[in-house]
Amino acid sequence: LDISAVQTVDRFFEMDEIARAIKSTLVHSQAKPEEILVVVPSMKNYKGTIEAAFEDAGVPYFVDEAIRIVT
After folding, report:
1. From the DSSP assignment, how many helices (H) and strands (E) are in the chain?
2. For 13, which of 2, 8, 29, 55 could close a Cys bridge (C-beta 3.0–4.6 Å)?
3. What value does the mean pLDDT of the chain take?
4. C-alpha to C-alpha distance for 70 and 55, rounded to whole angstroms
5. CA trace torsion 47, 49, 53, 54 (10° rounding)
6. Which helix (H) or strand (E) holds 15?
7. What are the distances in angstroms from CA 4 to CA 17, 18, 36?
8. Residue 65: what pLDDT?
9. Would the pTM count as exceeding 0.90?
């Protein structure tokens, strides 16, 4: 179990750094994409940034977010 934290000047640079680190891990170790978890404080603020950074890096990803059901 390896836990890392990243702090940068903005969320765009942050996600780029995370995507690069994950790609390096996938290439240089036997880790599988489904074994890696990225947690962000707000999906509202990060979803587009995650999608752009991971697509640019060629890293597979899945965004899981709660969906509110109004009745």
Report:
1. 2, 0
2. 8
3. 90
4. 32
5. 0
6. helix 11-28
7. 12, 10, 11
8. 79
9. no
User: What one-character DSSP code corresponds to residue 9?
Assistant: S
Residues 6+ apart with CB under 8 A from 16: 53, 56, 57
Distance of CA 28 to the CA centre of its chain: 18
Q: In sequence order, what are the residues at sequence separation of 6 or more whose Cβ sits closer than 8 angstroms to the Cβ of residue 19? A: 53, 54, 56, 57, 59
H/E stretch holding 54 reads helix 43-57
pLDDT band, very low/low/confident/very high, at 30 (cuts 50, 70, 90): confident
The amino acid sitting at 3 is: I
Rounded-to-integer distance, Cα 33 and Cα 19, Å: 11
